[in-house]
Amino acid sequence: GSPSSSSSSNSSSVVAWSRLENKLRDRRIIRDRKFRYPWPGVAHCTGKEAAKRSDGKYTKMSDVLYEYMLNLMPVSQELSEVSEYTRTIPAGHMQSSPEQIKLFALLIKVLGAKRAIEVGVFTGYSALGIAQALPEDGILYALERDEKILEVAKAFWIKAGVSHKIRAIQGDAVEEMKAIVAEEEEGSFDFAFIDANKRAQLSYYEQCLSLVRRGGIIVID
């Protein structure tokens, strides 16, 4: 529906996305005028649900085909443990899907990425997948506001043996991103994943434009 008929939260999200869309189009990143914020439903449709959609945006597939796709590149035992834990807690649906993490790993390998940044860690599932894909001398800056959930993520990273590749940063991501921009050289990161406060995504994106090198990748969920 129109912003006037949506909830105030939905309206804010649509306005924020419109601003981001205009920024992207100004930079010639988006050229298709039909590109629109995926609202309603699509923004909350991931993994198997997305695979079953028949609206033309996704490839429709059966449960068997979806499981076959996942089994082509099975996730690590460490990632499976994080996933199993996350499903047992409130808001567990916010976890990234396994195929998304596999895509990140592929992109990181193709880029030859060594430095990455993630905004919004939650239980550490996607951060763990990114860290596993990075080379031994790689580094991931992982930003999370919630101190308690960040400690949960750290425990999984330690158990998986990748904590030395992750710099955990606890605090408000907008302010922490500003600090990173101030201390790091422009274009010093290869890959960024933004999956946090949707109302602040434009700010995160603008800061990532300074941090991620030309030819790098910024992924926004």
Short description:
This protein is of the alpha/beta class and 221 residues long. It is built from nine helices and five strands. The radius of gyration is 18 Å and the shape is globular.
Describe the protein in words.
With 221 residues, this protein is α/β, with parallel strands linked by helices. Helix content is 47%, strand content 14%. The protein contains 9 helices and 5 strands; from the N terminus they run H-H-H-H-H-E-H-E-H-E-H-E-H-E. It has a 5-stranded parallel beta sheet, sandwiched between helices. Strand 2, helix 7 and strand 3 form a beta-alpha-beta unit. Helix 5 packs parallel to helix 6 and helix 8 runs parallel beside helix 9. The chain is globular and about 45 Å long. The N terminus is likely disordered.
Low-confidence stretches: 1-6, 28-46
The whole-angstrom Rg is: 18 Å
Oligomer, anyone? single chain
Most strands sheet: 5 strands, parallel
Average pLDDT: 81
**Ends apart, CA distance between termini:** 22 Å
Let me know the number of strands: 5
Determine the fraction of residues in helical runs and give it as a percent range.
40-55%
Anisotropy-based shape: globular
Strand content: 5-15%
